[in-house]
Design brief:
Elements (H helix, E strand, L loop, with lengths): L1 H4 L10 H11 L4 E4 L7 H9 L9 E5 L7 H6 L4 E4 L4 H11 L7
Parallel strand pairs: 1-2, 2-3
């Protein structure tokens, strides 16, 4: 809802496998990925995204309820562009998206 209010088109997936399939179908300009998900966790999904050449270039923003336990080094090792703690303020997410250069895009 927040992104739609900013005129950012969104595509939603229920789990990581669906997210990867949608990324391969739609080639979004950014992917917002929760670390805690059913089936595969966000780290596994991120690794699959980054090991798939046709979508590896897409910036990924990770979301976590426990940001304090995750180092920026780990985030970058796995190829994520940024991490955002939950809960977050709406302006924080919009700022991250703009910093990556993906505002007004599909995510």
């Amino acid at each position: 809802m927040l992104l739609k209010l900013q005129n950012i088109e969104t595509i939603t997936a229920c789990d990581g496998d669906e997210g990867i399939a949608l990324a391969l179908k739609h080639y979004p300009t950014i992917i917002l990925l929760d670390i805690a998900m059913p089936v595969s966790d966000g780290w596994q999904v991120l690794d699959k995204l980054k090991s798939t050449p046709s979508i590896a270039h897409i910036p990924v923003v990770l979301f976590t309820a426990d940001e304090s336990t995750i180092s920026q080094e780990k985030v970058h090792e796995h190829g994520a562009a940024a991490i955002c703690g939950k809960p977050f303020h709406p302006t924080q997410l919009i700022s991250i998206i703009k910093d990556i250069g993906c505002d007004n895009s599909r995510s």
